[in-house]
Design goal:
2 copies of one chain form a homodimer. Chain A has helices at residues 15-25, 40-50, 66-76, 91-100, 112-123, 131-146, 151-161, 166-173, 177-191, 196-205, and strands at residues 6-11, 31-37, 54-58, 81-86, 104-107, 128-129. By secondary structure, the first copy, chain A, is of the alpha/beta class. Chain B binds a DNA duplex through helix 7 and helix 9.
Chain lengths: 213, 213
DNA sequence: GCCCGTCTACCCACTTATGGGTAGGCCTCG
DNA sequence: CGAGGCCTACCCATAAGTGGGTAGACGGGC
């Protein structure tokens, strides 16, 4: 399923970054830059036709922001792995990117080796965050580990792990499904996790629930 | 959330079983039989009003079968934990019960102690299967362990664990979402697992996927 | 040659989740 | 008393999953 060369699409409205990155990446035999664009919309059109395995996308772009573009990419091309490029290590940008479906986030001050590494990692199914980003994510996690979830949220997370629907959770706790839904949303937001599957893995990882039931 | 006494509803169209079970259970202080019925419909009506924590239900009943009744109970009262009572250790009945949402299955030839144990177990969130049933489930599992899933199914299960939707899986594998859906259905059917959450736990348990991504 | 498992694909009706919100009541801490 | 966290509850529109099916194509083995 993995082609011999990793196909990459570059989207960045800074020509210097775009061309520089392209030139550098082309020196690697196993990476194929199948297109470049300075606007997200144009990049999306290229992606429609070329189906890149990986898309490197600037987060700050005029007209269509990188964050919004993630949405569009994931709707139309769910298979392309999106790595955000950013000059800012803003917590908001990072978590927002992850929430919307990016699988990588690298700061523009990283070495090209790191970019290559990121491409390789996400292409093979992993996630990649450059060192500065990792620090922020780690700090987040540390803050979380201290007092991550409210008791109610922990309880609900436990029920989610057992496959309960919002309605079932509601019935079980004597609340309305709408409230269970809110808790579920808050869990995702707090933990920066986009999917229910991710919540389950988080819960199992952190001993909030156990596999054995 | 757990009341001091476990409220239990009994549904069985054999008066002997119904009355006998009621009499026996009432000798236990921590169990409260809040109602009995010989028809599933009647039991459902009682459940609507009394909201039992646990419902023991015969699988073979006229008019409305126990299996179908599980559906209705879970729609209206998702919180009540359903334990099927059966004289048959039919594999079909058992897996069908589990698939529809029962959390226990006990044969009628078990000791009353076992029934009490089942009630306690499911009331506290677990599942209970009497010894004869366990054997069958075990045999199933053994058969599964040998060669449970096709390579394609294993692959798709791995993607499900990472939270991919059917559409994302389809895009990733170059198939249609409908096919991804079919694979997902087959996974559930083969493994006798009702929920996506259950699939994820299965995958993590059996090393088909790992938490670390 | 035929059966069977596998992979593919589609049908339907229905339920549920998702991702944005907003907002009120309650309690605690400063 | 005011701020903020927590739990509750609802709004909207859209996307996705569920649970029944059926069925064709391909390949291997008896």
């Amino acid at each position: 399923m993995t082609r011999d060369r990793i196909s990459v699409l570059l989207i960045d409205n800074h020509p210097v970054v775009l061309d520089g990155l392209k030139a550098v990446l082309e020196t690697f035999d196993h990476i194929e830059v199948i297109g470049t664009a300075s606007l997200a919309q144009v990049g999306l059109e290229i992606a429609r036709q070329r189906r890149p395995q990986v898309t490197l996308m600037d987060i700050n772009m005029p007209k269509l922001s990188g964050i919004d573009a993630i949405e569009l990419f994931r709707r139309e091309l769910p298979a392309t792995r999106i790595v955000m490029l950013s000059m800012h290590d803003s917590r908001e940008y990072i978590s927002s990117s992850i929430m919307h479906g990016a699988v990588g986030y690298i700061l523009k001050d990283v070495s090209t080796d790191e970019v290559v590494c990121a491409i390789e990692t996400v292409a093979s199914g992993g996630t990649y965050f450059s060192s500065g980003v990792r620090d922020i994510l780690m700090a987040d996690e540390a803050r979380m580990e201290a007092d991550p979830l409210t008791p109610r949220e922990r309880h609900i997370l436990g029920l989610i792990v057992t496959g309960r629907s919002n309605r079932e959770i509601a019935e079980e706790l004597g609340i309305t499904p709408a409230t269970a839904e809110t808790h579920r949303k808050n869990l995702k937001r707090k933990l920066g996790i986009a999917t229910t599957a991710g919540l389950i893995r988080y819960a199992l990882d952190h001993g909030i629930a156990t596999r054995a039931v």
